[in-house]
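WARN no homologs supplied; continuing
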Amino acid sequence: MKCGVKESLVFLFMSLMSFAQTPNWTLKFTSVVEKDGQGCPGAVIAVSQGSTKVATAVTASDGYFTVEIPPNGNYVVTVSKDGCNSKRFAVNTTGVPADMNKDNFKAIVKIEGVTMSKPLPGIDYSALSQPMTQIAYVPSKKKFTDDEVYTNQMLGALMKIREAERILLEKYAAANKSGDAALAKNDCENAKLNYSNANKLLPDEQYPKDQLLKSENCAKAKEDQKKKEQEAAAAKLAAEKAAQEKAAADKLAAEKAAAEKAEQERIAKEKAAAEKAAADKLAAEKAEADRIAKEKAAAEKLAAEKAAQEKAAAEKLAAEKAAAEKAEAERIAKEKALAEKAAADKLAAEKAEAERIAKEKAAAEKAEQERIAKEK
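OK structure emitted
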């Protein structure tokens, strides 16, 4: 049975001769447990007779299991997994002929698959408290098989559960999709509404919780942005008002300054005109004074040139006299120097002759002394 629904039940058995008295065979109940389309390890399979457990098994990594069910009893096979809906199967091992034993009878019941899924809120799972199928030995078929009428009845109940789950999941997916679309458009409030609906439909799912937090942050950001825009608008309005008031004040100040400047320029112009008239008068007076001074300077220059000419003639005469006196003095000095040089040359010659004579005398005396000394 796959996804909780029996798609096909394959039952195999082999019958051989056995002792008619004591049944010593067991029914092998085998299947695979799946979750999310894959083998489900760790699922617990329990075979119970009333409140007594007669056999247990745990699925391996591939999800397969096999349990052995004793003969001559009514049993319930329960498949359970933490967090998932349990599945039950009723198995009746009575009614097998007495001549069947382990040597001539090997019974196997193989169920295609058992799918485990967690329960969804708001779904009526009461039908799952009943066995998914009822298995018993059918003498006419000489094998273990299910009660088709009961199985079909349970299939209908399971289809109703699956349909209710499908509708719930579609609503959940649609709410998330609408929330995602709204969040993408920055429609924070609509996103919050859709994610809230999705969270109410499946409170255990994390996605709408995470997205709800994003949409709340989005709404807060929009509110903060709106507040900033309002503050900016108020600041802009205040700035515009201040600018208008400043412009008016500046205009008034400019007009006042212009009037004051015009008055100052008028006063300055009148003052400049008066100063110019005074300057012109002063210039005329200065020009007259300059003319008088120029004429005086010309007379003084003429007198100075005359005095300079007279002085130059006197200085020339004095220079010529000084030059003549200097030439005479230089002639006398030159003659004196020549006389002094002639006297010095004569004295030097006399000195040299005296030194020569003295030298010859000394040499003669030395030679005489050497001769005497030699003779002695």
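Helices lie at 148-184, 188-201, 207-375.
OK
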